[in-house]
Design brief:
Order of helices and strands: HHHH
Radius of gyration: 27 Å
Number of domains: 1
Oligomer: single chain
Largest sheet: none
Number of helices: 4
Number of strands: 0
Helix content: over 70%
Strand content: under 5%
Length: 126
């Protein structure tokens, strides 16, 4: 009977310590993922296309393998927060795309004005 009780206690202690390790890994994951998103948001205005490709690859790691490892420890609140982090990344990327489009339009307008000006000057000279 003592052996059975001893085995039960050992199993219980191992189970509790494993659960605590998983909680610690989950908390570390959330903190690190949040730092990654904050870094992206802070540096996004200066990102190049290559920077975004690198950030996207890192996001894939955060939402793929790393998340899978701690998935069972995530609560509904944790899931909501992680989803919010992903949304913040997508928002930062959308802002980058918007700025690229605006810059492209500005360059096109600038080039068009130059072409019109040169065309008018050619007409005046003739």
């Amino acid at each position: 009977m003592r052996i059975l009780l001893l085995c039960f206690c050992a199993f219980f202690l191992l189970h509790c310590s494993e659960r605590q390790r998983m909680e610690n890994r989950k908390d570390a994951y959330i903190r690190s993922f949040n730092k990654f998103i904050e870094r992206v948001e802070k540096n996004a205005p200066g990102f190049t296309k290559a920077d975004w490709e690198t950030a996207d690859e890192e996001l894939d790691q955060w939402t793929g393998i790393k998340r899978h490892d701690i998935q069972e420890a995530l609560t509904n609140e944790d899931e909501a927060f992680v989803n919010e982090l992903e949304s913040r990344f997508e928002t930062a990327y959308a802002q980058y795309l918007k700025q690229r489009i605006l810059n492209g339009i500005k360059e096109t307008v600038k080039d068009a004005k130059k072409e019109i000006r040169e065309g008018v000057e050619d007409l005046i000279e003739k």
